[in-house]
Amino acid sequence: MPNWLIEPDFVVERDPDRCIQCEVCVRQCANEAHEFDEELQEVFTDSTRCVGCHRCASLCPTDAISIRPAELEFRPNENWSAQAIRNIYKQSEQGGVLLTGMGNPEPLPIYWDRMLLNASQVTNPSIDPLREPMELLTHIGSKPQRLEFSGGETPQLETTLGPQLELHVPVMFSAMSYGSISYNASEALARAANEVGTYANTGEGGLHEDLRQYAGRMIVQVASGRFGVDVDYLNSGAAVEIKIGQGAKPGIGGHLPGEKVSADISATRMIPEGTDALSPAPHHDIYSIEDLRQLIYAIKEATRYRKPVGVKIAAVHHVAAIASGCVRAGADFVAIDGYRGGTGAAPTMIRNNVGIPIEFALAAVDSRLREEGIRQDAGLIVAGSFRCAADVVKAIALGADACYIGTAALVAMGCHVCQKCYTGRCNWGIATQDPYLTRRLNPNIATRRLVNLLESWAHEIQEIMGGMGINAIESLRGNRDHLRGVNLTDRELNVLGIQMAGE
Amino acid sequence: MRIDAAGIHYRQLNEQINEAVDAGETEFVLDNVLGHRYIGAGLRDGVHLTINGIPGNDLAAFMDGAEIEVHSNVQDGVANTMNAGRIIVHGDGGDILGHSMRGGHVLVRGLVGYRCGIHCKAYEERLPVMVVGTTAGDYLGEYMAGGVIVVLNAEDTDGSPVGRFCGTGMHGGAIFVRGEIEEHQLGAEVTVEPVGEADRDMLEAIIREWSMAFGVDPGRFAPEEFVKIFPRSSRPYGKLYAY
């Protein structure tokens, strides 16, 4: 490819006074940005290959490397941004669909940042979670409309409860398949979920034999490709999730290229080694809500009604009506993934332009299910870029039962959000299957970091709740009175169902 | 064990079967079946069901080794994501028969509907085989990733025994059709050839299996009368993206 078409995103600078020619950077960069010239006995850098993942700079023993955005500027143009121009260079050269990774990076509004939380002052006391009990226990599943008890001295519950997931922190690890992420990353997520008392989601790539020991804290996913799905898989997890859509790529399927289908992944997905794993855009047995009900109950029959069966959808137009349909179809939980949701690979145009913000989707769905009197029939899980504990608290106040985190969990393991997951050359050993790279992620350390993250978020959630004078997360759920809007129009406040700050 | 399905909900029927299987029962005869869904869902090796009446949708979903013989037509979604086992249908099949099937055999005496064998796939010793007695509807073997579909055209129907969009998106496995098939009926990802020596024994064995199940003379179907539809590439979308 002629060089003039490849414009670097970054400039890698090497301080010659500091560099000791140790070649750590050469060995660390799977994108081959650094190269050792045997003749000159010197390391050279090709900035066009840099993805900005910071691996070399992080590991350089003498701090000789710095990485800056490329200074090769086009004439300023608000319409024809550098990205828009470079995309056209790339497509006119290769003739393909632009591919990307991670969630939507475009400067679209983040509504979590336009909602602020309440705290107690004078009229009711706040609570210190360090000294008083603060309940985060969350159950996800279908709840009965009413409870019946037997009479007598000690009343006994007579209503049969459906199967429930029990979360000690209202945050779960979102669906990330073994294939999109490495085995070590999958193992760390599964182990951390067990340790904290939450759940990791297998994604659509099946469940590796060695991870089945952690499956009591895993949600197994059934997607359109049905990879790795058999009756043992369905029964191994704590719950089953039917994946209809994903926030980063609503309405389209997935292609795991044959190069990534190694022997181990082939065994987990139960497909031949080296073949493309194609997930069709729709489930071909689901063309309606009635068909969805049929699959939900097929899975309930195959698991003998012992597991909650949920449905994951992307947040799109009419999401409230769709979610209502899912609940009426028998889903024990509905997971909604907003348009900022992450991915290992998605067409850029779809990721950046399809779907709606999770904040609106959540508010609309929760309101609709309440209006219809069916909110108790299903748990509501939201996904699509939860960056911190405050985002989680806001989501729960808006009506969610729990959140899924994907990118935040990867960042905890070392991800630098370089958006190159789709290349399979993740220098941090997360979104890759290359054994040379996957070894870089130590599952023990990654597990500890994930546990640390969830425990710190749990404590922050407790602190925020205590400040509001709330001592159980059940009292926060759907309690929109604790949210106020800033920088929002009347229409936005209406859809979110919250008041303006000052009101 | 004989179960009269008249007037009971599918959930009760399937629970009775499951409980009896847990207790060691292996032979079942189900009478008066009428639209009961999910019969045989997830059932494993060594269990044999005989169904009198018309079972409902998703018969044998996720089935893992059991055998089912249906003395009637079946509805939609038979063998959905089935892993292993055998189903014999003494009648017609509905739509999406064998969806995402990974193993086992489905033998249908009559015709099947639309979207049959979509995304069926093979893995190691598991090779799904679906045999259609007469004709199949549109989208046969769409997205097919592995396995074998055979359309016998046993009644020598006028015109083609398969519909349109046959093998669209196919990237593994093979479809054998006895009778004519025109280019416009095929997906862009497949090609057609006469049956070669390499496939002959397998095709004959499948024909024998179907013929024995329904008491038909296997000599009626000669391998030369079939064409083989198979994918041009196992990587149909390998060049779709710009990096």
Task: Walk me through what this model shows.
The complex is a heterodimer of chains A (503) and B (243). In chain A, 30% of the residues lie in helices and 16% in strands. Chain A is of the alpha/beta class and 503 residues long. Chain A folds into two domains: 3-96, Alpha-Beta Plaits; 171-468, Aldolase class I (TIM Barrel), CATH 3.20.20. In chain A, the strands form seven sheets. An eight-stranded parallel beta barrel of chain A has the order 9-10-11-12-15-16-18-19, surrounded by five helices. Chain A has a three-stranded mixed beta sheet with strand order 6-20-21, with helices on one face. Chain A has a two-stranded antiparallel ribbon with strand order 1-4. The relative contact order of chain A is 0.15. The model of chain A has no long low-confidence stretch (mean pLDDT 95). Chain B has 243 residues and is an alpha/beta fold. Chain B has one domain (2-231): Glutamate synthase, alpha subunit, C-terminal domain (Pectate Lyase C-like, 3 Solenoid), CATH 2.160.20.60. Chain B contains two helices and twelve strands. Chain B has helices spanning 10-22, 197-214; strands at residues 2-4, 27-34, 48-54, 64-70, 84-89, 105-108, 129-132, 145-151, 172-178, 190-194, 226-231, 241-242. In chain B, strands 1-2-3-4-5-6-7-8-9-11-10 form an eleven-stranded mixed beta sheet, sandwiched between helices. The longest helix of chain B has 18 residues, at 197-214. Chain B is globular and about 50 Å long. Chains A and B meet through α3, β5, α5 and α7 of A and α1 and β12 of B.
Strand content of chain B: 25-35%
Helix and strand string of chain B, N-terminal first? Answer: EHEEEEEEEEEHEE
Name the quaternary structure: heterodimer
Compute the gyration radius of chain A: what is it?
A: 24 Å
Count, helices of chain B? 2
Q: Please estimate the helix content of chain B.
A: 10-25%
CATH topology of chain B: Pectate Lyase C-like
What is the fold's blueprint, element by element?
The complex is a heterodimer of chains A (503) and B (243).
Chain A: E1 10-14, H1 24-28, E2 34-37, E3 42-45, H2 55-59, E4 65-69, H3 82-94, E5 97-100, E6 115-117, E7 138-140, E8 165-167, E9 171-175, H4 183-196, E10 200-201, E11 218-222, H5 231-236, E12 239-243, E13 254-256, H6 263-269, E14 277-279, H7 289-302, E15 309-314, H8 319-328, E16 333-337, E17 346-347, H9 348-353, H10 358-371, E18 379-383, H11 389-398, E19 402-405, H12 407-412, H13 435-438, H14 443-468, H15 473-476, E20 483-485, H16 490-496, E21 499-500
Parallel strand pairs in A: 9-10, 9-19, 10-11, 11-12, 12-15, 15-16, 16-18, 18-19, 20-21
Antiparallel strand pairs in A: 1-4, 2-3, 5-17, 6-20, 7-8, 13-14
Helix pairs in contact in A: 4-14, 8-10, 11-14
Chain B: E1 2-4, H1 10-22, E2 27-34, E3 48-54, E4 64-70, E5 84-89, E6 105-108, E7 129-132, E8 145-151, E9 172-178, E10 190-194, H2 197-214, E11 226-231, E12 241-242
Parallel strand pairs in B: 1-2, 2-3, 3-4, 4-5, 5-6, 6-7, 7-8, 8-9
Antiparallel strand pairs in B: 9-11, 10-11
